[in-house]
Amino acid sequence: MRRIVRLLLLSMLSLVYPTYAADSEVMVVGALDFAFKDLTLESPGGGGGGGQKFNTNLVTLNPGVAIAYKRFYANLNFDKSIDSASTTQIDNSLPSMLTMSRSDTVLTLGYRPLDSVSLFAGWLSGEIGAYLNGQRNEGGQPTFYTQEISYTEKGPFVGFALSHAFGDKGSISFSVAYAQLSGNMSQTRYVGGNFPYTQYTNDNADVKGVSYGLVWTGPLNGSMNYRLGIKSTRYEGDTVGGQPGINEYYTSLFLGLTNTF
Predict the structure, then answer these.
(1) pLDDT (tens digit, 9 = 90+) per residue, 45-62?
(2) Domains of the chain by range and CATH?
């Protein structure tokens, strides 16, 4: 029974939401995940014009710690990209080189009304950085430019999680969370050629979205467990002035280890 209790808690930790703790003890769980993330960021034009779309694949490192007491728990998670390999994309029919990074900090507080059900709320703070080397047409001739993009988002979220244990073999869990965030997109473009200039944009947006998570947790040895799962997130926000919105979409596949202390 104790093993099943731990598996239920560990399966929810990777989704940021533990779901079960023994009623008579404090449980502390540490975790470390490696994730492969496909990230897309849509924004107003860098200094004017139509919207822009940035897409890349990232490898992220995700350490976390959860503390559970009876039916209450708290969880702190960090998510930091460790691979900033550049990708090639097309900007206005000309090739460009894109480098992106991402980091997140998530604090979650929750309550378990039933053994397999968890309700939670928390605070998310995230940041995306991007650097674009590209070309533009100037009098029919290509001109090189560089563009720096910084996007930050922060705000509360709420959600619920469900889990089911398959004896000592492992457990599966599913979560849904809704977030309402304040987003800010700042861009600086440096353009060379006969008419060098610098363009700035600074756009704010009310960002709303939903994330879904599915994870399997299984035993390894003693208090050590493994887990693998998938998380999908869609955040969308409207900017002022009728410009294209600030949208963020990503899907993350992760594999990690957890240990109970």
Answers:
(1) 654 445 678 888 899 999
(2) 2-260 (2.40.128.90)
